Amino acid sequence: MGLGGGWDTTPYGATEIKEAEADVEAALDSGITVFDHADIYRHGKSEAVFGEILDRAPGLRERIVLQTKCGIRLADGDLPGMYDLRSETIVRQVEGSLGRLRTDFIDVLLLHRPDPLADPEDTARALTALHRQKLVRAFGVSNMSAAQIALLQAHLDFPLVADQLEMSLHHRDWLEAGVLVNTPEAANVGFPLGTLEHCRANGIRIQAWSALARGRFTGLEETPAERATARLVSSLAEAKGTTPETILLWWLQRHPARIAPVIGSARPERIRACGDAARREPELTHEEWYGLWITARGAALP
């Protein structure tokens, strides 16, 4: 969740805490109980503000699943931003998250981005230590391919449980990769083929970040295909007695991979607009699902 004010080091105050409380209340009212963070969000302020909320609401911690991420270092002075999955960095960042969140443990820790310099054995050593100390209950990854997941898993005695990827009706490479095999268009798809299948075969839950495509089909359309898709989304929402946001999330959830959408909004009204996706099973038919996909891609399937 994007809590805590702007992407700067300005301290948060009572206003940011009040806004965050409204966001959390909207999520809980909508049946959302998994809260996704990262140590870098708002330079740590997102975790810190959420920690304030947990501190003020006894019993809330037991009702929710707390997920956060580590492994990115923001730019600092002359040092550029970089990825860092060395064991000492992971442990240090997790200790920081625990302090900001004011909790004794993290339910799920994701490695935020692949680090080309990471030694998987060294990375696994940190995860194993955190697991044995019961500081983290489960681990996953973010923005990683099947091969990267398999390499890390080979050094762990417990299963990785999640892979968080950018997925939406707009960002569809994860879907296109599977149907453009043996076509010239396959060269234009950047998603590593086999990642979804690997996750499904190994019980790794796929999470979708930017699931609402930053408003691309709910008011911020830019192309004819996007405008046509927005009209179809709105029509389906009206027919099914729900919101356009829910239709977009249902489109992801309808996939047999059981994709779990991650909602990045910090606006209570937009969070509540996603409520049916948490309360109701996806109500898109085979034909409706394909209709959304083909309209969004702006071309027939091969």
What can you see in these coordinates?
- This protein has helices at 14-29, 45-56, 87-101, 120-132, 146-153, 173-179, 195-201, 224-239, 244-253, 268-273, 275-279, 286-297, and strands at residues 34-36, 65-70, 72-73, 82-83, 106-111, 136-142, 160-166, 205-209, 260-261.
- With 302 residues, it is α/β, with parallel strands linked by helices.
- It has two domains: 1-165, NADP-dependent oxidoreductase domain (TIM Barrel, Alpha-Beta Barrel); 167-255 and 264-302, NADP-dependent oxidoreductase domain (TIM Barrel, Alpha-Beta Barrel).
- Strands 1-2-5-6-7-8-9 form a seven-stranded parallel β-sheet.
- Helix 2 links the parallel strand 1 (34-36) and strand 2 (65-70).
- The longest helix is centred in the first third of the chain and has 16 residues, at 14-29.
> Can you summarize the main beta sheet?
7 strands, parallel
Can you list the strand order of the major beta sheet? Answer: 1-2-5-6-7-8-9
- Helix and strand content put the structural class at alpha/beta
Give the number of domains. Answer: 2
**Mind telling me the CATH superfamily name of the largest domain?**
NADP-dependent oxidoreductase domain
Fraction of residues in helix: 40-55%
Query: What do we call the CATH topology of the largest domain?
Result: TIM Barrel
Mean pLDDT: 96
Shape: globular
CATH architecture name of the largest domain: Alpha-Beta Barrel
The CATH C-level name of the largest domain is Alpha Beta
Tally the helices: what do you get? Answer: 12
| Low-pLDDT residue spans | none
The number of E-state strands comes to 9
Elements, N to C (H/E) = HEHEEEHEHEHEHHEHHEHHH
Please tell me how large the radius of gyration is.
Answer: 20 Å
Strand composition percent: 5-15%
- Distance, first to last CA: 38 Å
